[in-house]
Design brief:
The chain is an alpha+beta fold. It contains ten helices and four strands; from the N terminus they run βαβαββαααααααα. The protein has two domains: 92 residues, Glutaredoxin (3-Layer(aba) Sandwich), CATH 3.40.30.10; 113 residues, Glutathione S-transferase Yfyf (Class Pi), Chain A, domain 2 (Up-down Bundle). It has a four-stranded mixed β-sheet with strand order 2-1-3-4. Helix 1 links the parallel strand 1 and strand 2. The protein is globular, with a radius of gyration of 17 Å. Keywords: Transferase.
Length: 223
């Protein structure tokens, strides 16, 4: 039984949202300690001791502290294998290897262009900043190339690592959600049949719906 799980940050943060989704998938009890970066609450002494370089997400379990959102998700799945969704990190070495390949692809190739699009398409307008059209076009091309590969895989599989929803899919949710929230970004996903079907499936999971609800109830910081 999970005990003493603490998550520091705001649901609006993509990193925090990734961890929240995993916590809900694993049906684990936890305490969310909201830190609003806009109000500089992340400079409180206790949080300074725990924060990652970006101040986006920090996780504590007893005397363990982890600051990378993907590492936190891996930790939750390995530390609590029998709780909640038992197949989210694979049930064998081959399945886990496939999931890890996709986690690496998301972190190394999907995250950078999608994060840039999140800022320029979703956050910049809300912050009264002018989006950088050149950067948007550049990152649209990069993301389109990635999604073309995804579409080919998803033509054969229901999800990225096979026919079960896993961390491979979960890790893509936060950035994808913000991109799809803009008409321009949404076309990147809807223009590809299998990617569109996949995104509809993963974004309709109850775990993600809970995260979106938390964001709407208390948006917090966009950082």
């Amino acid at each position: 039984m999970a005990a003493g799980l603490q998550l520091f940050g705001q649901p609006a943060s993509t990193d925090v949202a990734r961890v929240l989704t995993c916590l809900f998938e694993k049906n684990l009890e936890f305490e969310l300690i909201r830190i609003d970066n806009f109000k500089k609450e992340h400079k409180l002494p206790e949080f300074v001791k725990l924060r990652d370089p970006t101040g986006q997400v920090t996780f504590k379990h007893g005397d363990k502290t982890i600051v990378d959102s993907r590492a936190i998700c891996r930790y939750l799945c390995t530390e609590f294998p029998e709780d909640g969704n038992r197949t989210i990190y694979g049930t064998g070495s081959l399945e886990r290897a496939s999931i890890e390949q996709w986690l690496q692809a998301e972190a190394q190739s999907f995250d950078a262009p999608s994060s840039d699009l999140v800022f320029h398409l979703a956050f910049a307008p809300q912050l009264n900043m002018s989006p950088d059209e050149a950067r948007i076009v550049e990152n649209e091309k990069k993301l389109q190339q990635m999604l073309t590969v995804y579409d080919e895989i998803l033509a054969k599989n229901k999800f990225l690592a096979g026919d079960e929803f896993t961390l491979a899919d979960l890790s893509h949710l936060p950035n994808s959600h913000y991109i799809v929230s803009s008409p321009r970004g949404k076309k990147l996903f809807t223009s590809k049949k299998h990617v569109a079907r996949w995104y509809d499936a993963i974004s309709s999971r109850q775990s993600w719906i809970q995260v979106v609800k938390m964001r709407s109830e208390n948006p917090g910081s966009f950082e």
